[in-house]
Structures are given as C-alpha cells and as structure tokens.
Amino acid sequence: MTDTATDSPKLLTDAPASTDLLGFKPHAERLAALIQDQIPDKASFVIGIEGEWGEGKSSFINLLKDAFPTDDTRPTIVDFNPWWFEGSDQLLRHFFDELLGQIDRSGRWTAPARKFMRGLAGLLDGGGKAAQLIPDPSVMAAGKTAETASGLLHKLGVEKTRSAQVLKASSKHVLEAQNFKTIVFIDDLDRLPAREIVELFRVIKAVADLPNIVYVIAYDRAIVASALDEIHPGRGGEAYLEKIVQLPYRLPKPTLKKWHTYNFDTLITTLRLLHGTPSDQEAQDSFRVICSAFLQLPRDAKRLLSSVHVYQLIPEQIRIDPVDFLFLEAMRLKDRRLWEQLLSAILSIRELMLMSTGGKNDDARFTSWLQGYMPALETAKPAVKDAIQHFTGWPVGKNKGLKERMVTPQRLSRLVSRVQIHLGYRSWDEEIDVLLNMMRAYRQVKPSENQFSNEAIEQFLQADTLPELAAALPSQGMKPTFFYEVIGFLQHRLNLAFDPLQHATLVAEFLEDGPLEETALLGYLQDFLACVFLGEIRSTFAELNDEAKAMVTDWLVGNTAKKMALLIGFSQPGDWDNFKALAVEKCLQMSLMELLTIPNPMVTAQVLDVIGRGEPSKVEVWEAALPEVLPDAAVPRLSLLFTSNGKMVMTNSAWLYKSKRFVNLVRQLPTSSLRAPDWDAFLQKATV
Fold first, then answer.
1. Average pLDDT over residues 417-434
2. Residue 629: which region, alpha, beta or left (left: phi > 0; alpha: psi -120 to 50)?
C-alpha cells in the first residue's frame, strides 16, 4: 500500500510562485519593456500593481523581475520590505539604508560616486547597512574636486548628523550621475496596519523624486485607499493614491482555461494522497464546480491543498468520496457558517425522507426543511448553490445546465436516492446509516465508532482460504452494512495489496453450496466485480469487461463456482453470447434440482429456457433425466419461477411447455403458491 506520508508532495506555502502558472508572463514582459524603454532617463516614476489579496501580485512581481534584460542594460533591483520597520523616521532612514546598501552590493557605482557615498554614509549612520561602507570624505565624488565634495557635505549640514533629509539630498546628487535605472519593489503594503500604510506612503511621497529610480509597489487598492482616507477624509485616499502613483497597473485576470488548469494542477495533479480520485469527465466536471464556487484566487487553491494535506488520511479512513471531501473542505475554508449548516442538514436527512409522501407538496416541504437548517443559503452566491446542488442532489441552484453527479455508494448524492435492494443485499435504511456515520466521522475528523475498521475489511479482502473468509465475515445482521463499507473502501483504496481474482473466486466458492440467506454476500460479489473491473460502482448494473467475463467463464468451465457463474453471466448486461453458448453445454450436464438452487429465480428461468437451444440429442437426455415426482425441496424453488420476474420467461419459453415431463412437474405445484394467470397461461400452452 502506498505510504501517503512519504509519497505526498510538500505543502504549497503562501510564497509567490517561481513559475508562470496563471499566464502572467506576457503581461510582465510588456510592463518590463515599458519601464526599460519608455520611462525617460534620470526620471523618477511610481507604478502600482493593484490586485486583491491572494490574487497573485507577488508572483507577478517575480515574473516582472525576470523579464528585464540580463546584460549590462539590466536595471538594479532593490527589494524593500516595510514589515521590518516601524515609524516614519525609521522607515525613511531604513529605506535609504536598503537602497544604498543593495546598490553598493550590485557593484554598479562609478568609482567616484562609490567613494563619495562611503564618506557620506560614514558621517550619517553609525549602525546601519550604509555605515558599513568605509568612510573617505576627502575623495572626489562624481568628478568634483575634494573641496567641492567637502563643501557639498558642509552645505548639507552633515557634521555627524543623522538627518534623513541630508541622505536624500546626497543620494539624489549621486543617483543622478549614474547611467543605470534602479527599480525599488515594495510588496505587501495592504498587509500592514492602516497607520503603517499611511506612514509608508508618506515615505514614498518624500523620496518619489529621486532620479533614475522606478518604484513598483503592490497593494489592494480598496484597502490602501481606505487607510489613506485618514489623510483626507472622504475620497481623500483615492485622491492621494492618484497623486503618488503615476501608473496604476491592474493585475491581469487569467483566462478561465488557465485558471482551471492552475487549480487542477495545484489540487488534483499533486494530490496523490487521495487514492481513488477519478480522472474521468465526471470528476473534471465536479472539479470545475468546486473552482467556480470556492477557488477564485491562487491563495484559495493553496489553502485547500494545505487543508487536504493535514487531513490526508480522512478519505481512506472514513471512506468518503475524495471529490466530495474536496468540496466539503473548500466550503469550510470559504464559508464556515454555511458549511456547518450543510452538515447539520445532512445529518438530519432522515427527517426529510420521513416527510416525503411522493405527493405534490413534497417540494414545499423540502423548501421549508432546507430554510430551517440552512438559512445562510438564501444569501449564498449562485455558484455556491450550484455546487451544493451538484454534490447533494438537492435542487437549490438555478443553473439548468448543471450536470448531475453520478449517484454511487458513499457519495453525498446518495443521500437523496432511495437505494435499490440487491436481492436483500441492503436497504435504504442501512445505507443511510453508513452515509451518516461517514459524515459524523468527517465532522469529528476521525473514524466513527459505528464504522467497520479498515483492518477488518482488509482481513476479509486478503483471506486466502474459505475458513479465513468465513472468520472475517461479521454477524448475519451486520453483513449488508459491512459489504457496503467494503465497496466504499475499494473505491478509495484500490491500491490495497490483494488479489481481486482470488478474492472473487473465493467468495463465489463460498456461495456455491452455501445457505440461501447469503443474499447480502451475493449482492456484494456483483458489486465487487463492477468496482474492481470497471473502477467504479454505478447506480445500475454495468457490463463487466473482458477480464471479468473470462474469470466468470473459468468458474463455469472449471466447476469451481458454476452456479455463481451462471447467475452473473445471465444477469449482467452486454454481450455474453459466447458465455451462454458454453452455459448451454454446462447446464445440460446439471440436474434440474441443481439448477433450481441458483439464487436468482429470474436467472434460473433464463437457464431453463436456453437449455432448449442445445443439441437436440443432449436436450432429450437431459429431459429424460427429469424426475417423475417433484421432490419436496424443489416445490418452493420451482414455484418461485412463476411468482418472480422469471414468470414471463417461463410463460414465453419456446420449448419448456412442450416437455411433457417438465409440464408434469409443474402440475404437481400447489395452486395456492402460484400466481394463477401466469401458471394457467403456461399450462394452457402445454395443453394445446
């Protein structure tokens, strides 16, 4: 079995992406070209990258940095993080400290300018990064004489001062003499408290005119404008932004296709931990529904991935469908109140089902019930309502084109479907118990005490002998629930180390001569074949693939479980003609009493009818072997053929009513046990 702890990928942090996942690259390249070629030399310019929280501003900035030339025309990149400092004086001083320090480390100062700045920094700051430059105030700066440099320092009022104004004036003098642009990136402004946002914009305003510098600042416009209203109440924040930011650049929106690909790659491609996650079209459709409702920002997908990683074993432990699990976790992260109300409604599903009468007032009852449990649904967005409808089957959305989610075991959509009984395999009530235990386990983030453990299920699936299989079975009353949970287990842990062919054969052999009350195990066997060989359970019987057909044919030919083989081969849809041709030969070797022990009367009727298509001489031998007197044990079983779905087969059989020996046996059945019209129709044909 796969080790999910070691095989799973690492969590995706909130750090900006290093690759272009959202189609930002062409936009970043165009903006880089504008900065490089269209902003005049010596000029100062402020660009604002505007986007909501989690929309990808930091990722866009990374791509913008990468878009600049790599030769000697590349601008010098300076990163300034406002989170590190507090207070206007400290912010301003550290801004220059970072600016001068990072430019110095780039090695791009002209020699005179570097010496000038060394001397200036030494005079201004005894502890910052700029002060780490070796002081040498007597050296020429930018072509000036020593006297000119000293005079400049004197005029600026240095004299060991720590004045940021002096630093700005000196920086302007030196930056103006350089032949390269410097781009200062300031990210995450909108994460600062309102007071610090105001202080930072005051700093930007104070230094916005430094030459050869382009400021690229990233922020959520609504948050920053609201904070700047403090300066000028009313629309003052917007006006202040317009005064400082010369080019507001709205973060480009990814195309729907690109956005879906990003979310799919983030969540599904990397989620190897969700064993059994389907990759078919239905899963794609369901994932799109989740994206539309809950994943509007890159951060949403990352948070959901982190949540799923934390609870990565839950789909396996409680056997919830992985895509259902993704839907529930996405809702929990985006709207916890609605999520809690949905869980309450699901856990009260019996109340809704008991209210249903099948009449025209059911819709009104449902609406009233849902309003009582999910009042938050009234204000939910249409996409969220569509998601709830898609995953639960409740008609709460308005999207008529919304595809329905297939109703399969242990999916939320199963909660609104009264389950078909598979020969007594399970009832709707038993299945609802499993589903509600699953939801209780999900809410508590641990397996429910009422659920069968994975260890008990694995013991059953990995049994090597009939005694081991018998020992792994629960008590008779618990078998329907147990087998239903086994199917749920297989849907979500198909990588369990066991041999499905051996398991199916062992179950078939156990049933071959077992008691008739093992109908639950019989229903399980058919569901198991569909689950393993088709990869999923469908709401109706699905045709088995060639591998499964070959296995069932081997049972028939090898006499290991021939009655089970006949039952499956004659009850499954699809092309079984080759199998049925072999079945005729096999059935002609079996007695009537043996055929009557096939658990499904409908299949027995079909088998008896198809025998007549065998070689005439062999049919005569089989017919001649029929007993003259019907054994007591055969009476109820032969009666079933006329009181079940097999009655039409018997009545319309092309040859049975012509067999005098068989008709004689039918006449021995007590009329009280038969449905007169079908029995009479058969006997009337026989008389004619």
1. 63
2. beta
Cβ atoms of 383 and 376 within 8 Å: the answer is no
Are 209 and 171 in contact by the 8 Å Cβ rule? The answer is: no
Q: How far apart are CA 417 and CA 539, in angstroms?
A: 10
Q: Is the pLDDT of residue 620 over 50?
A: yes
E strand or H helix that includes residue 46: strand 44-50
H, E, C per residue of 459-508: HHHCCCCHHHHHHHCCCHHHHHHHHHHHHHHHHHCCCCCCCHHHHHHHHH
| Residues in contact with 10: Cβ distance below 8 Å, sequence separation at least 6, in sequence order | none
Q: How far apart are CA 268 and CA 288, in angstroms?
A: 12
Helices (H), 631-671: 634-640, 647-652, 660-667
pLDDT at site 123: 46
d(CA 668, CA 167): 116
Tokens read off for 89: 């004086």
For the entire predicted model, the pTM comes to 0.65
Cα–Cα distance between 450 and 440 in angstroms, integer? Answer: 10
Q: Sheet of 247-250: strands edge to edge?
A: 76-79, 182-186, 213-219, 44-50, 247-250
Q: Which of 125, 149, 152 is nearest to 136 (CA)?
A: 149
Radius of gyration of the chain (CA): 39
pLDDT for 90 equals 66
Q: What CATH number has the domain spanning 25-33+41-87+181-253?
A: 3.40.50.300
Q: Is the distance from CB of 69 to CB of 236 less than 8 angstroms?
A: no
Predicted local distance difference test score (pLDDT) of residue 351: 82
d(C-alpha 511, C-alpha 522), whole Å: 7
E-strand stretches of 178-253: 182-186, 213-219, 247-250
Contact 302, 310 (CB under 8 A): no
3-state secondary structure 1-13: CCCHHHHCCCCCC
C-alpha pair distances (Å), 673 with each of 632, 635, 663: 14, 9, 16
Residue that has been written with the tokens 């005729």 in this structure: 584
Q: Where are the domains of the chain?
A: 25-33+41-87+181-253, 109-177, 256-335+380-404, 406-523
Tokens, residue 239: 């006006």
- Tokens read off for 72: 């000697």
Average pLDDT along the chain: 78
Residue 275, sorted as left (phi over 0), alpha (psi -120 to 50) or beta, turns out to be: beta
Q: Pick the closest to residue 324 from 470, 438, 158 (CA basis).
A: 438
Compute the distance between CA of residue 686 and CA of residue 663 in angstroms, rounded to an integer: 7
Share of the chain above pLDDT 70, in %: 76
CA–CA distance, 64 with 245 (Å, rounded to integer):
18
Distance CA(160)–CA(151), nearest Å, equals: 15
pLDDT exceeds 60 at position 182? yes
The residues, ordered by sequence, that sit 6+ positions from 556 with a Cβ below 8 Å of its Cβ are 562, 565, 566, 569, 579, 582, 583, 586
pLDDT over 70 at 141, yes or no: no
CB-based contact 549:579 (threshold 8 Å): yes
CB 408 within 8 A of CB 414: yes
How far is it between the farthest Cα atoms of the chain? 135
Q: Summarize the confidence of residues 581-595 as an average pLDDT.
A: 91
Rounded mean pLDDT, 40-65:
86
CA-based angle 88:92:95, to the nearest 5? 135
Average pLDDT over residues 541-547: 74
| Token pair 């009939």: residue | 466
> End-to-end distance of the chain based on CA atoms, in angstroms?
65
